[in-house]
Amino acid sequence: MKEDLKISKKKPSYKISEALDAYLSNYNRNLNLPIFYEDLLRFQGSVIVYDKNEEDTLWVRVYYNEFEREEIDLSLKQVYSSLLSDGSEGILKYLNIDAIDFCTFGNSKPFRIKIRNILNDNYTYFYVKKADASRVYGLELEHMLSPYNLNFLVCRDTLIEEHIAGIPGDEFIKNMLNDCNASEKAQIAKEFVKFNERCMIRLLGDMRSYNYVIVPTHDFDHVVFKIRAIDFDQQSFEGNLKIYRPQFFKENYKMVELVKDKIQKESVDQYKIEERSIVAKRMISYQNRINTLLTCMEDDELSLKKHIDKLKEEIYNYTLDLKFRKSETMGQVVKNALDFVKRNYEGVNAKPF
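The structure assignment produced for this chain is given below.
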């Protein structure tokens, strides 16, 4: 269904609570950093970054005075070592900070750091963002409930995120989807059904096409396509349940049409059940860790009361589970949603969510 869903233009930023901070320390997500988000804001100027088609990317390349740049570069190399290596300084001499870009679009306004190994010219990216509890919960839930592991670090008000490689969904839909063969389109449609279900189960919102990437992997004589979320700002904030279902965004209209064209309803239902079962199994595997995270989440302020009241009522109407009506915080709504899926998998009050 093609809709124009309304999302809050300016989502509040929620602080990391003491309980969440303790959780992050316990699971090695919390680390003393040599540089913070605010430090990168002291740039002297910037130039617009254009793509290969000379279109504005909404990123600007920033520059600093020469005295600060040397210290900033060293600190960012140390951050990279802590994020993706053992934190030692032995690799720093082989690294170069090629670019620091600042995004002027969206809530998080991140810095994108391009870092290169000078021995072989391989490069990668990582991001420096303002730490927000919603985003941290979103990253942790993605790490535990999706097929993908995530690297990130938090220190006070700064969040460091590993780059998630892939083809931006909007670019893929516009320039590559039509060139896929029938078998590939069917496989992409299946993956979109599973991605749609996974987002709804853990209440990850705003998965418009530019907030996820398509990851193609060659497997023998064919290509397997996977879909990965890359933006976790809208983890369980909005009150409209449709915002947690990518199928309802007009930007995903071609993907929805692909599902209608390539997959029968019986298969759609089958793939939904498969995804719910996989998520339930992951919950069991991460039982202690996810219970600890959800305990923190239950007590945190992560949304507005009007959003909580609206969402819990919509999910109640969808499931007829009274636990949702009794939810007082957005964390409780998320916990009840995950518990519902787990009970369903275990055969207790089985009913599709």
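Interim note for the steering committee: The chain has a mean pLDDT of 93. Strands lie at 45-50, 56-63, 95-103, 111-117, 123-130, 152-155, 158-162, 167-168, 212-219, 222-229.
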